[in-house]
Amino acid sequence: MAGILVVGEVAPDGTLARISAEVATLARTIGGGQAVRGLVVAVDPDTAAAELARYLPEVEAVAAPDLATGVAPQRVALEAERLAAAADHVLVGGSPDGRDVAGILSARLGRGVLSNATGVSWGDDGPVVEMSVFGGRLATWSSFTGGQGIVTVRPNVVTAEPATSPGRVSHGEAAEAPAGLAPVVVLDRVSEATGAAPIEEARIIVAGGRGVGGPDGFRVVEELADVLGGAVGATRAAVDAGWIPYAQQIGQTGKIVKPALYVALGISGAIQHKVGMQTADTIVAVNRDPDAPIAEFADLLVVGDLFEVVPAIVAALRARTA
Question: Rounded to whole angstroms, how far apart are CA atoms 20 and 127?
């Protein structure tokens, strides 16, 4: 019986990206009697491959020195194409690199893609993929008509859970690029100077919206995040206004997050933002409008001026730790 290939993604520090652990967990648990295999391609893939093997029974690690100056998706897709011959279905994280890998594989293998899955189960004829559409208003369930396909999985919709016993890591030889396929070369890299963890991995997020009034208003957001030991997020309106970088945008066109605590300050709760944070364990909102849409799904709504409420919360928290 044909199997499932999980394409792992490597974080900048050489470890396995969290989204890949989530995808591996999903692939291992959807059933169908499928053999599941993982793939990690990197300059030095050993660390990430060992981590992926915590979730899958078998992982192939491929060392690709050319990635030191090249772009990962193209090389990763070539290696995945080689292994996909023994796998009817390929699962990859719905990150920017993951989407690129899926697109390249689709073109080269002639397989369809179901994107941004919020869930996958196994039906009579293969995977049944759940997707959120129309800004989260509706859910659809789709499958592949040709018996083969590629699925990209939305971040933070699966809780990563290691297998009961670790799998085996083998080392494969890098595939040769087909003639005529020009390599994509990195000419320059620009890194943002920050010590903060990626917002999608934060356990606590304090986010600001249009209600913070401007870039100066985000000082209150940052202060509360600092006291709570969390990360700062924002709505698209705040990002579009230039108050905060895009890397901190949460929502349909930004990051999908799943923190233990999400504090929404001056955020109305439009559906486009809701789809990016609705799976948070606890949602606390501060808003002057008691009828704001966020009141419908927040666990706690504080009706008031955030510039009065938040300083009081910060003072109370600091008093507890003094």
Answer: 18
Q: Which residue has the tokens 């394409």?
A: 7
* DSSP assignment letter at 11: -
Thinking of the domain 199-321, which architecture would CATH place it in?
A: 3-Layer(aba) Sandwich (3.40)
Which residues, 6 or more positions from 307, have their beta carbon under 8 angstroms from its beta carbon?
217, 220
CATH topology of domain 3-172: Rossmann fold (3.40.50)
Task: Quote the CA–CA distance of 105 and 27 in Å, as a whole number.
Answer: 18
**Residue-wise pLDDT tens digits, 68-119:** 877 889 889 999 999 998 899 999 999 889 999 999 999 999 999 999 899 9
The residue ranges of every structural domain in the chain are: 3-172, 199-321
List, for residues 160-204, the tens digit of each pLDDT value: 999 999 999 999 888 777 766 677 777 887 766 554 567 888 899
Instruction: Quote the pTM value.
Output: 0.79
- How far is the C-alpha of 225 from the C-alpha of 65, rounded, in Å? 40
- Distances in Å between the Cα of 224 and the Cα atoms of 147, 217, 220, 315 are 51, 12, 6, 10
- Are residues 67 and 36 in contact, defined by beta-carbon separation less than 8 angstroms? no
Is the separation of the CB atoms in 45 and 61 below 8 Å?
yes
pLDDT single digits (tens) 25-65: 999 998 767 899 999 999 999 999 999 999 999 999 999 98
User: Over the range 239-276, which residues count as b (16 or more CB within 10 Å of their CB) and which as e?
Assistant: beeebbeeebbbbbebbbbbbebbbbbbbbbbebbbbb
